[in-house]
Structure formats: structure tokens, C-alpha cells
Amino acid sequence: LEVYYDGQDYTQMPTTVTDKSGNNRTGTPTSVGFDTEYKAFTFNGSSSGISTTSTATLSNHTASMWIKFDSPAAWEAVYTIEPVSGNDRNNAVLYVGNSYFRLESVGNTGPYFDFGYDFVIGAWVHLTLVFRGTGLEDCEMYIDNVKLVPSGGKRSETDNITISGTNTVSVGIDPGSYYLDGSIANFRLFNRALTSDEIYQ
């Protein structure tokens, strides 16, 4: 477990978000609100995000969270992993589209791979993304433990993705100015691909 952000210990939005993984990946929030009923971090779709720094190799990783979409539209960022400078098959971004998720590695000819999904506004769902650096077509997405089907949108989906060194991990934001309009709770980032049994648990 590389990063773990959970709002259960808070009664209001803290100035920094404690990393409960034990790795001290303290999160820095910007314009993030807090839902006291669901103990969730809320993102306004225009300026919100939580960021931290990781030195783990994340070519293979798993992101898991509870998430609620308030107005799903292209391109809202769910989470981002990227180096300080230079993007070319060394980063990962999960975007919300109008009727699909887009997993992308931003670059000059950035690989991407789409998963079809019918968004339900205001409903909490459990999202898991298993990322494999052997190519975006090898990645898997689950909503409420149901594996999503690729929608057909893709480019350079077999290219290797290498995420190593020092990277910024961002929740609810792509620093390139794409923001989530919704809420996230129990954000976990693992530095390996979880198995289907682990995802179920």
C-alpha cells in the first residue's frame, strides 16, 4: 500500500491529509471540501485536488476508491501519476468521459484506452483500476466489482508504460487543468497489480 487517504478521522477538511499507509505521503489539498456525512473529500470541478509525492515504481499499480460523480463530462481527472517534467509513456491518468472512462499516458502520441460506462449522477460506486505497464490494453477497470468492457476507443494501447523515479500523485485533478466534479472516499494506491480476489475483498 503506497498511499491511503481516508476521511473517517476528520470532522472537517484538514489543512493536510494524513497518509494512513505508513509511508508519510502526506496529501496537500487545494480548494477541497469535506462531506461530514460520508466522510469524503469533495471536488468542485474547477480548482480542487489533493497531491503528494511518491518515489515508488508504479509501472504496475492499483487505484481503489469510493467515488461519486456530480456531473460527469469530458475530461474530469480521477487521479494522476506523473513526473515533475516531461510526459511520454511515463505517466498515468484516469479521465471521465461522457459515457466512458479513458485511461491515458499523456505524451506526444499519448496511448489511451477507453472503458464503457453509464454514469449515474450522485450515486456512490466502488472503483478499482488495475494498471499494468505492459500496455493499456492489459489494464482492468471494475465498478462495484464488475469488470468494465473496453468501448473500442484506443491508441498505441500495446506500448509499454514505465513509471519510476519521483512522481506527483494527484487525486481529483490532472495538473494540466482537468478537475473532478464529485467526491472521493477511501482512496488507496497500491504499488502492484491486485488480483481479482483481492479486489473483491
Q: Could you describe the 3D structure shown?
A:
The protein contains one helix and 18 strands. The chain has 201 residues and is an all-beta fold. Strands 1, 3, 4, 6, 11, 12, 13 and 18 form an eight-stranded antiparallel beta sheet that branches. An eight-stranded antiparallel beta sheet has the order 2-5-15-7-8-9-10-14, with no helix packed on it. Strands 16-17 form a two-stranded antiparallel sheet. Strand 11 (124-131) and strand 12 form a beta hairpin. The longest helix has 5 residues, at 196-200. It starts with a strand and ends with a helix.
**Main sheet properties:** 8 strands, antiparallel
Span of the ends, CA to CA: 15 Å
Mean pLDDT score: 95
Estimated helix fraction: under 10%
Order of helix and strand elements from N to C terminus: EEEEEEEEEEEEEEEEEEH
The radius of gyration over CA amounts to 15 Å
- The fraction of residues assigned to DSSP E strands is over 45%
Low-confidence parts: none
Q: SS-based structural class? A: mainly beta
Number of helices: 1
Quaternary organisation of the protein chains: single chain
Strand segment tally: 18
Instruction: Indicate the overall shape.
Output: globular
